[in-house]
Amino acid sequence: MVHDDKEREDEVDMVVAAEHVKPRHISIMRRHAGGLICLAIKNEISVKLGLTYMHDMLQRLSNITPLFSKLAYGKAPYGDRPSFSISINHHDTYTGVTDIDRALTINKMSEVCKNINSTGLADFATNFHAPGHVPILIASKSLQERAGHTELCVYLMDLAGLTPAVAICEMLDSCNYRSLSVEKAKKYASKSGIPILEANQLKNVQTSVTASRIS
Description:
This protein is α+β, with helices and mostly antiparallel strands. It has helices spanning 23-33, 43-49, 54-61, 67-71, 99-114, 120-127, 149-159, 182-192, 199-214, and strands at 2-3, 12-17, 38-41, 84-90, 128-138, 165-170, 172-173, 178-179, 197-198. The strands form 2 sheets. The chain has a 7-stranded mixed beta sheet with strand order 4-5-3-6-2-1-9. The radius of gyration is 17 Å and the shape is globular. The chain starts with a strand and ends with a helix.
């Protein structure tokens, strides 16, 4: 679980490495977290796949449909532009929305990301279709550029030596219909045996790694 800054969304996301996602993980995210289950990928991978942000796609289409320019304008209340790109399903899914189907799409997409310098691009073009039931989020190039859950969780995968693709889902509170508070999230984390990280912990690691590379 990852908590971003209080000055930003002040939300906690449940996180699973895409290459290890199983249907039971999607079920837990759906029932215990309750937010939108997305797949965040590293910026370099999105460039190689030719994926762009949805707000950029809408802006380009505004010449055809002027309304799109209004829909794509501006930032979220917490100060960032959304990291959403397209949504996908793997060809082997049926409806695409079941726990089994979403786990398959996410797991297979992690293979695309892992093999991006070899068979990944051809695999993506051949075995996926859009729109689907798994939204792709594109991380910015660094935490200095943007430090949302998308970037924090992709960076966490890098630190762990895993494929930089990660399933994330906001944790919601069914009692007050808002985001789950950090206090409640920590209780859930303790009860469930799930580590919870703060944004500053990941930022500090990146700063230390960057400084060591420079020196």
